[in-house]
Amino acid sequence: QIQKLLRKAVDGGSRYFVLEATSHGLEQNRLAFTSFKVAVATNITSDHMDYHKNWQNYATAKAKLFKNVQYSVLNKDDKSYEFLKNKASGTVVSYSVKQKADYSLEKFPFKSKIQEEYNLSNSLAAASAASLLGVPKGKIIAAVQTFSGISGRMQEVEAGQNFKAIIDFAHTPNSLKKALTELRKKKLPKSKLIAVFGAAGERDKSKRPLMGEIAANLADISIITAEDPRRENPNSIISQITQGFKKLKKALDTDYFMIPDRSKAINFAVNLAGPADIVAFFGKGHEKSMGYGKKEYAWDEVKEVRKAIERKLKNEK
Fold this sequence. Notes:
Elements: H1 2-11, H2 23-27, E1 38-40, H3 49-52, H4 55-63, E2 71-75, H5 81-85, E3 91-96, E4 103-104, H6 117-132, H7 137-146, E5 155-156, E6 164-168, H8 173-186, E7 193-197, H9 207-218, E8 221-224, H10 234-247, E9 256-258, H11 262-272, E10 278-282, E11 289-292, E12 295-298, H12 301-316
Parallel strand pairs: 1-2, 2-3, 3-4, 6-10, 7-8, 7-10, 8-9
Antiparallel strand pairs: 5-6, 11-12
C-alpha cells in the first residue's frame, strides 16, 4: 500500500513524501522496502504496551526508522535522545526548545500561532527536516508563523458561549498530561478546567489508571466516558481509569463522574461549565467514527460539542 501511495505521489509530480511511521509498522517490517532520506523523532513515551510490553522494546522498534538514512533528527528534550543517538545513522541532528541544540528557538526564531510547548517542539522538528532538505529558512519561518493548527488538535469550538470548549486528540498518558498542563496555564484563577475523556478498548490497559491519575491531578472536574470501547465493556474500562482518581482520594460525583454514553458525557460537561471555564474533550479529535463491538459508527466530536453548547444556550434564554 505504501508503495502504491509513493507511486501516486511521483506520478503527481511530488518531490517530497512525509510519512508517519508507526512502531507496529516498523516492528512488522511493513516499511522494509521504503528508503527514507530524513528520519525524525518527536517523543517516545510508554505507549502500545499491550504489544511491545516495555519501553525498551517500543523504542527499539522506533529506532528501526533511523537505519540507513541520510539524516537522523532527534529531540534533545526527550528521554529517547541518547537511546536513538546510539542507534541512528547518517548525520545526527538535534533540536530543542529547552537547551542548546543544532536547531533551537534561538537559532531558528519564529512566532507561532500555536504556542503550546509540544507544538513549538514539533514545529522545530519540522523546521529541522525542511532545512536539511534545502528549503530556505525564510520560507520555513513564514510557513510556521502562518500555520494555525489542524482539526482535532487543540481545536476551539465557538458557538457564542462564555466558556472555552477545546477538542484534542490526546489519548495517551503523555499527551493528556501535556494538553492538560497547557490548558491549566490558560485557566483563570477562579475558573474550572473540566476534562472529558476515556480510553480505547482492546488496547493498552496499563495506561488507563495512569490517565485517571493525570486527570485527577490536573483537571478540576473529570467526566470519564467511552472512547472506542470495541468489544470491551465501556463500564469496565471506565472503572480501570477511576483507579487513578481513587489513588488520589478523589470523590465520585464531585471530582469525577462516570458517564459511558459519550454524547451524554459531552452534554453533562457543557452544562457544568460556567463563565471563563475551560472544557476539554480528549481522545477522539478529528476521527469520524466510534468503535462499538466489531462495527464503526459515525461520530463527529466537533458537531456533538457544538450541539451541546447550542442546546445549553437555548435553554438559558
